[in-house]
Structures are given as C-alpha cells and as structure tokens.
Amino acid sequence: MIIMGLFQKFKDMFSSKKAREEELEEILEDETVEVEEETEEVKEETEEVEDIDETEVEEESTEDEEIEEDSEEETVEETSEDEEEVIEEPEEEVVEEVVEEPIKVEEPKKEKKKKKFGFFNLSEKDKDLLAYDKGLEKSRKEFVSELSILGKKFTKVNEDYYEELEQLLISADIGINTVFKFMDRLRDRVKHENITDTNYLTEVIVDELLMIYVEGSSLTDKINIASDGPTVILMVGVNGVGKTTTIGKLAHKYIKEGKKVMLIAGDTFRAGAVPQLEEWANRTGALFFGKENTDPAGVIFDGLVKAKEENADIVLIDTAGRLQNKVNLMNELEKINKVIGRHIPNAPHETLLIIDATTGQNGISQAESFKEITNITGIVLTKLDGTAKGGIVLAIKENVGIPVKFIGLGEQMEDLRTFDIEDYIYGLFKDMM
Ligand SMILES: Nc1nc2c(ncn2[C@@H]2O[C@H](COP(=O)(O)OP(=O)(O)O)[C@@H](O)[C@H]2O)c(=O)[nH]1
Ligand SMILES: [Mg+2]
C-alpha cells in the first residue's frame, strides 16, 4: 500500500475532531431548552448580491471607460494597463445610477426560537468546530458527495473519469488554473503509482487537494495588533460583499475579548451606510464616529482624533465600495491611508479586503484589482454559508496569494470565525473519512 501522506495525517486529526463533535452533540441535545430570544435580523432589501450572469451584463460602451469583465476563459492573471477601468461590481453593472437606494435598517425582531442552551457555555474551539461544520455544509454535501458518486460511477480510471472530475472541480470554484495544475499532478501520480481503482483514487484526490490547502499556509493569518496605541483596521471591497456586517462582527469579537472598539464610518455618501454602521455600534457596544455626506478622509481624520482621546484599542474603518473608476478609488484610498498614517504611525495595521464567496471567480478578479490599488494584508471571505463553492479558498491561495484571515458563516454577529485550515478541511471533507 502506498503511503497516503497528508490524508493519513488528517485522518488522525479528523477522528479526534469527530469524537469531540459527537460528544458535543450529546451535550447540546441534553440541554436543549426553549428560550425566548432576541434575534437580530437586519434585512437590507437593497443589498442583493446576486451573481449576475456574465452574459447579461450590458457593457456601457457610450462611455470611454472599459468595464472589467470576467469570463471563464479569461486567464486570471489579467493585468490591466487601462487606468480608466471600472472595478466590477456584481450588483450594479446593469443600471448605473447616481443615487443609491437607502439601506433599510429594521429594528431587531422578537422571535420565539428553540435555542440550544448549552451552546453559550462552549469553549471558542468547540464553537469553531460547530460553526465550520454548519457553514460548510453546502460545500461538503455537494462537492464531496459528487466526488464519491464519481468514484462509484467509474470503476476504472479513464479519460471520461478525468473529464468529469475536471468539471466537478471547476464547478466547485477552485479556479481553472488550479484545476489544470491539479489534474496534471493527479495524472502523474496515477501513472507513477499505477492506480486503477477509482475508490482508491478518491483518497488520492483528497490528499492532493489537502496539499494545495496546506502549501503556503505559512502565510500568516494573524491580525497585526499594534504594541502601543490603537490598532487600525481598514475594510475595503465592492458594495454588498459584507464590509459593514464584518465590522460589526469584528467589533463583537474584540469587545468580547475585553477591548475598547471604535467604528468609523468612511462610507459617507451611500444613503443609509452611516446609520447602518451606527446600528452595529449600538448593538455591539462599540464607540462610533460618523458624518454623512462629507469627505471620507475628513471623517476618518476626526474619528481618529476621537479614538485617541477615548483610548480605543481597536479602530475599524468602513469605506465606500465604489467610486466610478479604479483611479478614483486608488486616489481615495491613498488619501485615507495618508490621513491614517499621519495620525498613527504604522497605521493602518491591517487592510482587509472583503470578498463574497458566492460571487465565485468574480471575487477572485476583485481581489486582483484591489491588490493593484492598495496594500491588502488579508482577506475576509463572507457568505460561505450560502454557497456550495467552498473551493474558492483554494483559488484565493493560488491566484491572489493573500491570506484569508476570517470567514463569514452567517449574518449574525457571532458568525465570524478566524480562518483555521484544520477546521476548514474537516468541515469540507469529514464525510469522506
Ligand atoms: N449569509 C451571509 N450573509 C452575509 C454575510 N456577511 C454579510 N452578509 C449579508 O450581506 C449583505 C450585505 O452586507 P453589508 O455589510 O451591508 O455589505 P457592504 O456593502 O460591503 O457593507 C447583508 O444582507 C448581510 O447580512 C455572511 O457571512 N453570510
Ligand atoms: Mg457597507
């Protein structure tokens, strides 16, 4: 029998996680009680981030500006020399309007809900395990079950098998380049090790996928915390990806850790954006600074003065997702960075790019564009709970090379998790072990 490198190693890790998970299930079942709970549901009706079919996107050729467009065939390494390009936004390509509809912030609804009481008493590690498990359920169910179906459908490894496998990987949003590289490696290994049995090959596939996940995981996923004075974290990304929500979640996390947190609303022109952030400040108990319809850099300047006066430990800055073109956005962010750096040396300590996992390859090209515009230190991958395409983490690693630092697994403030490769792998592949 050939040594199964990582797969074996993870199998051991899996069995301890699985055992803990079973224990947790028992604990939680025993303690299930009915509790009346305030659920905070914020419905933002304008915030649809539905993936627009590329073919439906109308190019506005009346303007001289070129719209950055992704197509599946396009190589991801596209470097854009054209400075007049518009950063693509999934939701607003079709109608280019000046005034955006306001974001509706609803009062939290009272709702009777069956709540598993024991959950609140769990350690963070246990909560992580459960959150990843739930958040990656869609990806796991679809991808992994199709993989095993494939193993059953073909008894021998042949060209048809390879073809279907390739399709499967592509549809999991792993990214074309990564898939091709992966297929080459797999074919080599099949030849080398003389593999004919597809069931055995399924294990090899997982092994190779794990390899990609683990390669380069030396990229640090820790948040750079200032040794002295406030730590400034700037959030960037296109509209609707979850910037404001992620700020709320991060505020909740740091406040729970005993830190003093301040939120600054740098998205000043979008109707409803400032109150939306203020609402998050109220909900989490963070300090807030914001003014509508003024220069973002100015608001950030004043906000930082206040943050220093208040001795805030963590300052989270929201920014606008959209300025007509790349050059504008670059200038705006440069201005913001200057203001921040003048106030607080070495700040911003982190610039986090928010990517919506449900937008797939579109998200990857956003990451590539933003990388050219400003110094991104980490990625937050949101809405992983809403997609079966968990493979996007692989594509980010391969194509963008910036570490994923947090993942969003739901809309509530508890639904943000530090990215953990082991929990992630477990969440995706546990049914195969
Ligand atoms: N399911 C899910 N929804 C999310 C997540 N993060 C954000 N959202 C939702 O995405 C929508 C847009 O979020 P918002 O923070 O306003 O995006 P922004 O325009 O980038 O600031 C809101 O309806 C959020 O509740 C997530 O991790 N999972
Ligand atoms: Mg926002």
Would you kindly provide a written description of the structure presented here, covering whatever features stand out?
This protein is α/β, with parallel strands linked by helices. The protein has 13 helices and ten strands. It has a domain at 222-421: Rossmann fold, CATH 3.40.50.300. Helices cover 44% and strands 13% of the residues. The protein has an eight-stranded mixed sheet with strand order 5-4-6-3-7-8-9-10, with helices on both faces. Strands 1-2 form a two-stranded antiparallel sheet. The longest helix has 26 residues, at 5-30. The model is unreliable at 34-86, 88-99 and 107-117 (pLDDT under 50). The chain binds guanosine-5'-diphosphate and magnesium ion (MG). Guanosine-5'-diphosphate binds next to α7.
Question: Could you list some keywords that capture this structure?
Answer:
433 residues, alpha/beta, Rossmann fold, 8-stranded mixed beta sheet, 10 strands, 44% helix, binds guanosine-5'-diphosphate
